[in-house]
Amino acid sequence: EKDGYDTFMEKEIHDQPHAVADTLLGRTDAAGQLILDELRIDPEELKSITKIIVLACGTSAYAGMVAKYAIEHWCRIPVEVELSHEFRYRDPIIDPNTLVVSISQSGETMDTLMAVRYAKEQGARTVSICNTNGSTIPRESDAVLYTHAGPEIAVASTKAFLAQITAAYLLGLYLAQLNKKLYSQAIKDILAQLAEIPAKIQTVLDQADQVKELARSMKDTGSVLFLGRNVGYPVALEGALKLKELAYIHAEGFAAGELKHGPIALIDEGQPVFVVVPSPMDRHSLHAKVVSNIQEVRARGAKTIVVAEQGDEDVKQYAETTFYVPETLPMLMPLLTTVPLQIFALELASAKGYDVDQPRNLAKSVTVE
Ligand code: BG6
């Protein structure tokens, strides 16, 4: 059942082209219109949504952060992302025009379930993005958008994450289509780019050896930092989380712009820093800003490991190591840039002899609050 891989985690990382492709499958009609009939919320009702709150925990919450960037950009609807356990115990402002989107691989995470119940009680519409058919959270939600990653066995999430991001993009595009916030041609163009993602993930997987070699050489590292910006920020957080979960190494992800406001104090000789570099095509020119962050940490002795888009030659001169991913739309980059970080954590943990499928102290789905 591991398909010849040593671990479920490795298999699941390699399943990712399918996880994304299957999540996209059957969700457009011949004319290239998105059809999300399974959502089961009256489109008229969805049109009246004035605010979205995304609720999730762990890796799923980082998928939620990507969702925020995409939905706000494409739909112009304000999106908040909150950890389910924090949401439930403040006084969140919810009304019937609030759409609560929960994201959960298992559909059983108690913190998220309680938050969804609470949101429903307060009158919100609830949509569940979930990987497990018939599980509790989708059953208790008004609507569900399933991710089709297939069963995820390894405790730490990989393929479900990419599938959740994919589903969030579909939801964002669907809302943009309903509210006419994007031209239908623009939606088609984004969908066409999404359709190319599975093959591009495969390209990244085919270059895994370079990442693995670096991971083995860093087996005795005590701490690793991850920087990212815009949609690269949740990717940095996820890269750090994978390393904590699998390799028990202290790791932290930061928004690159925050570096000068504190974290730069951590940098000294030999500190490894991963930098998820925005596309050179990013409309806010964040690329140049992140390149100068790389220079800043490097000047203070950091060992810089860069994940950048193919063709981005600027970054190479400042990086100890550069991993390239194929070109795509800036918004879709997380589906590619996450992959080398997953492979890195997996290989480093394996080099330390750890059980990557069942890391210590963790459970696949936490069904207590
Ligand atoms: C944790 C898992 O307990 O729950 C993580 O170890 C996961 O991998 C998180 O991201 C949230 O789980 P779910 O099923 O709600 O996505």
Automatic annotation (TrEMBL):
It is found in: Cytoplasm. Keywords: Aminotransferase, Cytoplasm, Glutamine amidotransferase, Repeat, Transferase. Signal peptide: none annotated. Its main location: cytoplasm. Residues 42-181, 214-359 form the SIS domain. GO terms for biological process: carbohydrate metabolic process; fructose 6-phosphate metabolic process; protein N-linked glycosylation; UDP-N-acetylglucosamine metabolic process. One of its GO terms (molecular function) is glutamine-fructose-6-phosphate transaminase (isomerizing) activity. The active site is at 364 (for fru-6p isomerization activity). Its EC number is 2.6.1.16. GO terms for cellular component: cytosol. It catalyses: D-fructose 6-phosphate + L-glutamine = D-glucosamine 6-phosphate + L-glutamate. It is an enzyme of class 2 (transferase). Homodimer. Catalyzes the first step in hexosamine metabolism, converting fructose-6P into glucosamine-6P using glutamine as a nitrogen source. This is Glutamine--fructose-6-phosphate aminotransferase [isomerizing]. It comes from Micrococcus terreus. The gene is glmS. The chain holds residues 259 to 627 of 627 of the full protein.
